[in-house]
Each structure stands twice: as structure tokens, then as C-alpha cells.
Amino acid sequence: MPNHWLVKSEPDAFSWDQQVFNVIEPWTGVRNHMAKNNLKAMKKGDLVFFYHSNVGKEIVGVVEVANEAYPDPTAESGDWVCVDMRVVGPMPTPVTLAAIKAEPMLADVALVRMSRLSVMPIAPEHWKILAKMGGWKR
Predict the structure, then answer these.
(1) Distances 138 to 39, 47, 89, 91 between C-alpha atoms, Å
(2) 92-106 pLDDT, tens digit each
(3) What is the reported pTM?
(4) Structural domains of the chain, ranges and CATH numbers in brackets
């Protein structure tokens, strides 16, 4: 059974529309050790919510891990990694951070507890709630 994740990107740096245009895109530039470890834990086929941070603050789509962790070509030094993400589809109704915070059953989601973390796991029960909130049926 695949794991579930959420990745955050500032839409002015890399947006959902750019991800859709590119279809498969390396998720580079992660420079936080906890987020790096989450990238390393991702497996091919895992489903991932694509979240716009700063502007929008909402889940806008779903991608899947196309290739597991490999050295991040944008890193000048260190053991930073990236994974390749493939478009699965847009979230029918974007799920806002305000809506997530308003749902008591999502109080333990890392997006609420650790707001600066850019790559985070999503528990299966939380994935189901978030998917339902956004009308995601796949």
C-alpha cells in the first residue's frame, strides 16, 4: 500500500500549472533535514498532495512519486536529495489551510503542527479526509 505525503511550493517559485506543463518534475531545493528524510522515505507510486504555500495556502493537486530519492543536482554540497514527481490530477476543489485548521480531525496533520516543513507524511485517515474535502475520488 502506498504512503501518502504533502509537498509545499510557493506558486511564484514553482506552481501547480508548471508541474502540469512539465508532467514529471524533479522536486529539488529541499534544505531541511526532516524534509530530506521524508523525501528519502518516498517510494515510487506514493501519492502526494501538491500545496501552494505563501500565496493561496491550499492543496491544488495530486502528484505521484515517479522516481525515488537521488542526489539533488541543485545542491552545492551536502547529501541533499530530490525525487521526481508526476502529475496525477488537479484537486477538484482546492482545500485551503483555513478549512484544514477548521477540521478538528486534522489537528494532528503536520501542515497544522509544523507549518514550515515543506515535505511531510500524511496519515491514511487524514488523506481520506483531505481527499473528501477536495472532491478527490481516485
Answers:
(1) 23, 10, 9, 10
(2) 999 999 999 999 999
(3) 0.96
(4) 4-134 (3.10.590.10)
